[in-house]
Amino acid sequence: MTGNVPYYGGRFTPAQAYAAAHPPPPQVTPPPAQPRVRPSRGPSRDPVEALQHLLDTGVLTQEEFDELRARVER
């Protein structure tokens, strides 16, 4: 017999009888850890650099970028 309780002489001990009648609850596995999100360094202090980032990510078109860059450089 296997388990945490001793077995002797072909008979159940009271602990074995209790364990057989009361199986342990199923083990609950914790959910997988969520990846940590690094905080951003905040907005760039250089507005042209920020506009370039928006252009690179596709938020702005080239025409919008040129117009906004002209406004910033004045």
Could you give the topology of this structure?
Blueprint: H1 14-21, H2 47-57, H3 62-73
Helix pairs in contact: 2-3
Task: Characterize the structure shown.
The chain is an all-alpha fold and 74 residues long. It has a domain at 43-74. Helices cover 42% and strands 0% of the residues. The chain has helices at 14-21, 47-57, 62-73. The longest helix has 12 residues, at 62-73. The protein starts with 13 loop residues before the first helix and ends with a helix. The relative contact order is 0.09.
Task: Give a nutshell description of this structure.
The protein is an all-alpha fold. Helices cover 42% and strands 0% of the residues.
Beta-strand segment tally: 0
Low-confidence stretches: none
- The structural class is mainly alpha
User: Tell me, what's the shape?
Assistant: rod-shaped
- State the helicity in percent bands: 40-55%
| Secondary-structure element order, N to C | HHH
Computed CA radius of gyration, to the nearest angstrom: 34 Å
Task: Enumerate how many helices there are, as a single number.
Answer: 3
What can be said about the biggest beta sheet? none
The overall pLDDT average reads: 81
Distance between the termini: 86 Å
Proportion of β residues? Answer: under 5%
